[in-house]
Structures are given as C-alpha cells and as structure tokens.
Design brief:
Blueprint: H1 2-7, E1 9-13, E2 17-19, E3 30-32, E4 35-38, H2 43-56, E5 82-84, E6 87-89, H3 98-107, E7 112-113, E8 118-119, H4 120-126, E9 133-135
Antiparallel strand pairs: 1-4, 2-3, 2-9, 5-6, 7-8
C-alpha cells in the first residue's frame, strides 16, 4: 500500500475480505480489498505499475486462478472503456464476482461501470456469485 500511495493519491481503502477461491477450490481462501485512487497515469502506465507492485511482492508465474502473493486488477478507470490485448477496463468479470464487488462498493458505491450502465452497488445487488465472501 505504501508503494501505491507514492505513485497515486489514495482516496479510499476498503476493509479486507476473505473469499472462497475462484477457479480452483483446493487452495487457501483469497484476500481482497479495493482502493479508489486519483492518478495521472495513463491506462498502460497504471497497468505497468500494477505489474511492478506484483513483482515487488514476490509474484511469479503460476497456474491460472492459483495461489499468488499479490494480484492487482484495474477494475475501473473513470468512464474509460478499453478492450485491447493485455488491457481490459472495466475488468471483464467484475460484475460476476462478489469478491470484486463487495470491496469496490465500499470505496465507490455510485461509480457507474460503463460497460453495464449500472453502478457498482447495483451490480453487487444483482450478483449471483455463490462463493462465500466475509469481512475480516
């Protein structure tokens, strides 16, 4: 969080959530949180920052949906819609994942997800994800 706060202006940080693992059930639960930040970084520079933070936290390659030390996703970037190889904003699966929506709703409940035309809170209320998510 310190490194991120040096690179962006942190406006809000959600509580920490634990969630059943998505994709591979036989592994430890994931820890999730969301931040809302102000940044002057371009989308590509923000992605590069996310990847640097993951590497600095010890992340290395591994199985898809497998355990990892840190996974930084860009869920939203204002009203930007980007769909390019390697960079999709808003996050393509956020509306189907309670572990994304719960912390995001804490820091940006009224943020409109442009690809759905609905707020984060509206998407959370409509989410049918059966995986358990708890506040720590």
């Amino acid at each position: 969080m310190d490194r991120l706060s040096r690179e962006t202006e942190l406006l809000a940080v959600s509580r920490m959530y634990a969630s059943e693992p998505f994709g591979r059930s036989h592994q430890p639960w994931f820890l999730n949180l969301a931040v809302r930040a102000a940044t002057r970084h371009s989308p590509w520079d923000l992605l590069a920052l996310a990847k640097r933070l993951e590497l600095e936290a010890g992340r290395r390659g591994g199985a898809r949906w497998g355990p990892r030390t840190l996974d930084v996703d860009i869920l939203l970037l204002g009203d930007a819609v980007i769909d390019l190889p390697g960079l999709v904003i808003p996050h393509a699966s956020m509306a189907q994942r309670r572990f994304c929506l719960l912390p995001a709703a804490e820091v940006a409940p009224g943020a409109v997800v442009p690809t759905y035309g609905r707020t984060v809170t509206q998407l959370l209320n409509a989410c049918e994800d059966p995986l358990e998510v708890i506040v720590l």
